[in-house]
């Protein structure tokens, strides 16, 4: 008799989980443990750096090796009298939020491996030595480290497939659908963590270009648009190059610094978005101009094109 489709997928989940636990064992019990030992004994690399590279891999490994894999194994052995995995995956799902930290740290970890491989030949040698072992299957540390990043999307795909192949009357249908929904939420949580980290990094880079002025640095701000602009001076009918940063709550009117020491721009004026009015001006001498009037000041500005003016106004 042919195995039912859903059982084949459940078995694939079990097999990939076994392989995954072996990979986690390699990362935590071999790479991390041996590099940590080296850091404690010698002066090759600070212990802190090793911890930063491997993030919370130990917790992830313990969870899969001691809890999830044994539960799955037990369930597959009993499949003939209890053909279901939905409830087991529901127990797993909340713990997958642990991955947020690991995934968020991944780019930084890879960067640290590169930096310290150049800085510390013994560090590089130890990694190369472990990579030569049979257990590494000719793959680099970075390649093995990518596996946890890809694991949650893999669960999602397998479970989607499992739910699709379940017969309508299956006793596992409700649990499996609920489990899929939970896995989907965790994947979203992990992606949101990455997006938030990128937003903060980009925001910090902007603040550095502005010289980290106290009253401007706020992690909740959102940069909407930035770019060069011409300021029109009514007094002598001329224009001068300025630079604008538009945030959700303020417009920063800046002057590019000639000498970039520390900052790229000097903030000349801050206009609150609250109560600000913007309108196009029909000026024959200066095309593509618009007027910004706020509580603090009114500015007459010229964009490089009609299209650019429209995006600023919008």
Automatic annotation (TrEMBL):
Pfam families listed in its UniProt record: RhoGEF, SOS1_NGEF_PH
Keyword field: Cytoplasm, Cytoskeleton, Metal-binding, Phosphoprotein, Repeat, Zinc, Zinc-finger
Origin superkingdom: Eukaryota
UniProt cross-references to PROSITE patterns, sorted A to Z: DH_2, PH_DOMAIN
Molecular-function GO term, any one: zinc ion binding
GO CC annotations, alphabetized: cytoplasm; cytoskeleton
Principal location listed in the UniProt entry: cytoplasm
Ranges where the PH domain occurs: 222-314
Any Gene Ontology biological process: filopodium assembly
Cellular location(s): Cytoplasm, Cytoskeleton
Domain DH: 5-193
Full protein name: FGD2 protein
Higher taxonomy: Eukaryota, Metazoa, Chordata, Craniata, Vertebrata
Encoding gene, per UniProt annotation: Fgd2_0
């Amino acid at each position: 008799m042919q195995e039912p489709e859903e059982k084949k997928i459940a078995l694939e989940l079990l097999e990939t989980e076994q392989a995954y636990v072996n990979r986690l064992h390699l990362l935590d019990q071999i790479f991390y443990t041996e590099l940590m030992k080296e850091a404690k004994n010698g002066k090759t690399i600070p212990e802190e750096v090793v911890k930063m590279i491997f993030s919370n891999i130990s917790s992830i490994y313990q969870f899969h090796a001691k809890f999830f894999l044994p539960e799955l194994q037990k369930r597959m052995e009993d499949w003939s009298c209890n053909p279901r995995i939905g409830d087991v995956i529901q127990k797993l799902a909340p713990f997958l939020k642990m991955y947020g930290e690991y995934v968020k740290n991944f780019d930084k970890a890879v960067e640290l491996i590169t930096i310290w491989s150049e800085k510390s030949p013994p560090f590089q040698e130890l990694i190369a030595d472990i990579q030569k072992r049979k257990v590494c299957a000719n793959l680099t540390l970075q390649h093995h480290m990518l596996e946890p990043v890809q694991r949650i999307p893999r669960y999602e795909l397998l479970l989607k497939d499992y739910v699709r192949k379940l017969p309508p009357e299956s006793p596992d249908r409700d649990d499996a659908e609920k489990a899929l929904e939970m896995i989907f939420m965790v994947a979203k949580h992990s992606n949101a963590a990455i997006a938030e980290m990128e937003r903060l990094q980009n925001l910090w880079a902007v603040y550095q270009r502005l010289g980290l002025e106290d009253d401007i640095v706020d992690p909740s701000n959102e940069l909407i648009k930035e770019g060069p602009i011409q300021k029109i001076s009514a007094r002598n009918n001329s224009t001068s190059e300025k630079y604008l940063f538009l945030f959700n709550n303020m417009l920063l009117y800046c002057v590019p610094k000639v000498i970039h020491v520390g900052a790229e721009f000097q903030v000349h004026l801050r206009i609150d978005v609250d109560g600000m009015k913007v309108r196009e001006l029909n000026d024959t001498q200066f095309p593509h101009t618009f007027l910004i009037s706020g509580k603090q000041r009114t500015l007459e500005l010229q964009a490089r094109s009609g299209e650019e003016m429209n995006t600023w106004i919008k």
